[in-house]
Amino acid sequence: MADAISVIPAAVLRNLSDKLYEKRKNAALEVEGIVKQLASTNDHEKIAAVINLLANEYTYSPQANHRKGGLIGLAAATVGLTSDASQHLDQIVPPVLNSFSDQDSRVRYYACEALYNIAKVVRGDFIVFFNDIFDALCKLSADSDANVQSAAHLLDRLVKDIVTESDQFSIEEFIPLLRERMNVLNPYVRQFLVGWITVLDSVPDIDMLGFLPDFLDGLFNMLSDSSHEIRQQADSALSEFLQEIKNSPYATTGTRTEKTGEHNNELILYTRISHSFDTMLMLLLKSVDYGRMAEILVQRAASPDEFTRLTAITWINEFVKLGGDQLVPHYADILGAILPCISDKEEKIRVVARETNEELRGIQADPAEGFDVGAILSVARRHLSSEWEATRIEALHWISTLLNRHRTEVLSFLSDVFETLLKALSDPSDEVVLLVLEVHACIAKDEKHFDQLIIYLIQNFRVDNSLLEKRGALIIRRLCVLLDDETVYRKLSNILQGEPDLDFASVMVQALNLILLTSSELANLRNLLKKSLFDAAAKNLFLSLYASWCHSPMAIISLCLLAQTYQHASSVIQSLVEEDINVKFLVQLDKLIHLLETPTFAYLRLQLLEPGRYIWLLKALYGLLMLLPQQSVAFKILRTRLKTVPSYSFSGEQFKRLSSGHAFSESNDFNELQILEDGDMSEDQRDVHNGINFVSWLQQFQQVQERHRVHSKTQALARYSSTSSAKEIQRPEESKQPLPAPDMNSRPPSRSSRRSPGQLQL
Asked: Which stretches are HEAT repeats (predicted)?
């Protein structure tokens, strides 16, 4: 310090701390001259002493004017050193940087001014302090004093110029600092950061694209800033990076790119770039880390901010097109981001999300290459519970696609998704239910899974009656189209045959019977059943259905009419007892009478033109007529139909046989039987010819119906008991009160006490 005092006059040192700026400025010029003279003699020891004096006695002084003088003095010393200044930067720059956090705004202002002058002199030599300078400028950009902010902006522009022309700048050392600052919410700091990202990205030698994952999330965070200017700057920066990714010749490193395409990209690159060989080499070494960025984009695609979601899904769209093998491990996460966006309230987002979804589904990825079928399946399963119909639909499309491409792998994860798929059958959307059924049909190609599906359906129908009422027909009809209708009905009948819940069995059979009689999808099944009396396959189907159709008298009668076993239909009608003729039965009978007028039973109505040949058909229909209330619409419909039956084909003998209950004797030969009524022959003849023991099947029907009667009586008794118990609980005191004594005066006179006329009263 003594050397410095001996070199610098006391007056200069005194003026350097003066409160007047002009005196401090003149003193600084004196210091500049002194340092310049010392530099000319290479007396760096005294120069170091002068700098230490300025730093320790002035910039670190508790007096604000001393600190101001010290800053201007350090800047003047640097100017005096000119090219030799780099030797003393370790002494000069730290005191200036320390002053950036000074409590006095004027000191902070002079610190910016001093560093600006220092930077102009040393230029690229002070790059070694860049991180510290950047950190200081980052803070000053949000300074409360407008003058300080203005000075900081001037210094910032100079530093940017120096960095862009320097070959000593280390992007690797800078990125951690940038990543740390990207989460700052101050709008001035955000503008400062975006400005630096844009500037550094414009430098050919700096690979900002390779470090994009480190600050990409911060840029996306700025898209939801309250300041329109910041949102615009962030969007501009992101658009520029996305364009670079699309134009990068090695953007799809490791993808399925043919060598010819790579060479073409290289040629295009070399023709477009007019920089030095080193610059070209740096560009060729740039790479795009799709994986890390995909993780960020997936999170941002769920942002509550609409613009952020749109930008994120746009990036994902481009990544799916360009990413190739790098994205394969991230397909599940990407799908998880796309599916909710398909139902976004903003149309632009929905459009991009749908396009991205189609692109992703179109990629033929192989599990051997890292494609995780289980993860994709898990994402699709999770979104089956989405509140949005479009998302649920696309999730089902993904499951269907995976089944078609990777059936073995999907079936290995079936236990994780099967329950959800089954529950989806109760979805409020018809389109979703139809797609679920397609997926189930694809799974049910295996008998094991087919059995599981049918069993679950029946269980679900049993638990949820509304599902059977609202969706039962849709589900059964669609399954019959996707799978074999006969197989579906056989399996349903087989399960219902042993159904312990008799009420449910009856309702389910009635529903299946109605679907069988009315659905166009089951026309082939109806045509097959019409051949039950002379075709083995049709007979087996008839008997398979008969076993469970026994739960409903009207279903059995309908089945017999469909199979043209008219005599057995008549026998079933005759077997009905009083308990069977209830409101539910009459409702079902009403439906059947109306169905007889539909095209399904056109053949039956035409057979009425030959009543002599179809005697048992006529008797069965008259039997139904007798069960209907005369004032009902169904009674009038059926009676009107029967009135149209021509009577000319009846003979007295036929009426006699019909009324006796034996249409034909055992002596009738088979040809006569076939002429008189198609298939309606005596029981013995049918046993021999068709292999159907109708007597035995009628007994089975009666046994099942007896179980239903017992069940109904048990339920009635239970209801009566519960009602009686409730009444007793409500009136406990009434039951304990003694019966009132009879009023003898009110009793009518006994026979012995009655006087006959003329008898005297004693």
From this structure: 92-127
